[in-house]
Amino acid sequence: MGKIYCKDDFVLPPLKAIDIRGHDLIAERLDFDITLSAGGYSEFTARRRGNNFYNCAVSDDSITVFCDRHGLRPGHLRIKMTLYLPDPNMPDGSRTLTADVDSSIEIVPYPVPLELSESELSAVLPLIKGETGETGPVGPQGAPGIQGPPGEIPEETIKRIEDVTKKADDAASKAEEAASNIQTFSPEELDEIISEFN
Known about the structure:
It is elongated and about 110 Å long. It contains two helices and eleven strands, in the order E-E-E-E-E-E-E-E-E-E-E-H-H. The chain is α+β, with helices and mostly antiparallel strands.
């Protein structure tokens, strides 16, 4: 599929998760981990937990992994996908399924033109997708999202700001006027004034 310089950021071709019959599992909105490894001990992880995505984005039928500052060493890129299926029979409430994905991508120690094909990668998981069940209970609310652009400032607030600005301008004008009326004296005049009080 291609070669990637180990110091370059890259976007992995879209990754699909399907069961052994070819049914799409991404639409199930399951939590997942995608672990990339190459050259020994280096790993990079993308994941979904509820509505929070880390190093990835999900469309209707595929996952795109953004490998930013990945730290992967030279070697064959191995991809492992782990899905967490809700399962009340399991002590932690989910069943873990893992699949290895053949990437045909090589991380290399020298600069190369980025030439990843647009073909998709597929993780085939040992699962047969059944009929959609009932919606479960709503989980806890996730972390707040990114703050949007500021809204409109109410007219009352704008009027108050204008009033305060006008008062500050008036006070500054009065201070300037008062400063211009201050008499200045030469050292000789000051000595004469002081001698009058002695």
